[in-house]
């Protein structure tokens, strides 16, 4: 697959996400949180990685706070360098976040390092087969590949709007598939 295909797909996916009407966005995070909590199998006190949302990205904060309220540990990613997997740090509501490049908010470097059992990944688009289109840095793909060798039973969950589903979606051998997808309209498991 040519790199240009993904570049074009990302540009279209960004426009599509930006065009999602506000009424569709309102409450989407809370609806997705309810679907996640009612569907995704979590062991007690699981370590779940989420992300701090950017601009028009799907707002995972309702899920983040609900998981924390249900005694699960929250891990937020830190970017440690180009071409490297993400580094996860324990974060609790009220802990400070640091604004980094590209308006990313990350936990402090002094926060406790961890390996999550569940990784919730943001996305620009996804397809019916469980492949996601990210921002092009490959951070989540590298991270999922590494964690799948070190964390037995790791779950990779895409979180986004139902309107972000596209077909066709370019993907290749570097793209790690999702185990689940959760939107404001439901949860879907992918068989591997």
Describe the SSE topology.
Layout: H1 3-18, H2 22-25, H3 28-39, E1 47-49, H4 61-69, E2 73-78, E3 87-91, E4 97-99, E5 105-107, E6 113-114, E7 118-121, E8 125-126, E9 132-133, H5 139-150, E10 155-159, E11 180-183, E12 186-189
Parallel strand pairs: 1-2, 1-7, 7-10, 10-11
Antiparallel strand pairs: 2-3, 3-6, 4-5, 8-9, 11-12
Helix pairs in contact: 3-4
Which terms summarize this structure?
two-stranded antiparallel ribbon, 8-stranded mixed beta sheet, 192 residues, Rossmann fold, 12 strands, alpha/beta
Indicate the CATH architecture. Answer: 3-Layer(aba) Sandwich
CATH fold-type name: Rossmann fold
Total number of strands: 12
Order of helices and strands: HHHEHEEEEEEEEHEEE
Number of domains: 1
For the record, what is the CATH homologous superfamily label?
Answer: NagB/RpiA/CoA transferase-like
Helical proportion? 25-40%
Strand order of the largest sheet: 6-3-2-1-7-10-11-12
Classify the secondary structure makeup into a structural class.
alpha/beta
Strand content: 15-25%
Q: What is the highest CATH level, the class?
A: Alpha Beta
Sheet with most strands: 8 strands, mixed
Total helical segments: 5
Name the poorly predicted regions: none
Q: Could you say which overall geometry the principal axes of the C-alpha atoms support?
A: globular
């Amino acid at each position: 697959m040519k790199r240009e295909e993904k570049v074009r797909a990302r540009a279209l996916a960004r426009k599509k996400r930006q065009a999602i009407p506000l009424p569709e966005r309102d409450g989407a995070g809370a609806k997705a949180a309810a679907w996640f909590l009612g569907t995704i199998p979590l062991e007690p006190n699981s370590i779940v990685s989420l992300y701090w949302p950017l601009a028009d990205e799907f707002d995972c904060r309702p899920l983040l706070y609900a998981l924390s309220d249900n005694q699960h540990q929250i891990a937020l990613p830190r970017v440690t360098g180009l071409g490297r997997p993400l580094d996860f740090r324990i974060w609790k509501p009220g802990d400070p976040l640091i604004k980094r490049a590209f308006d990313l908010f990350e936990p402090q470097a002094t926060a406790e390092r961890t390996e999550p059992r569940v990784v919730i990944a943001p996305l620009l688009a996804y397809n019916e087969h469980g492949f996601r289109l990210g921002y092009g840095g490959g951070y989540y793909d590298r991270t999922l590949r590494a964690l799948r060798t070190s964390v037995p039973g790791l779950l990779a969950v895409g979180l986004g709007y139902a309107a972000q589903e596209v077909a066709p979606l370019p993907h290749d051998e570097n793209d790690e598939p999702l185990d689940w997808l959760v939107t404001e309209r439901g949860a879907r498991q992918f068989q591997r």
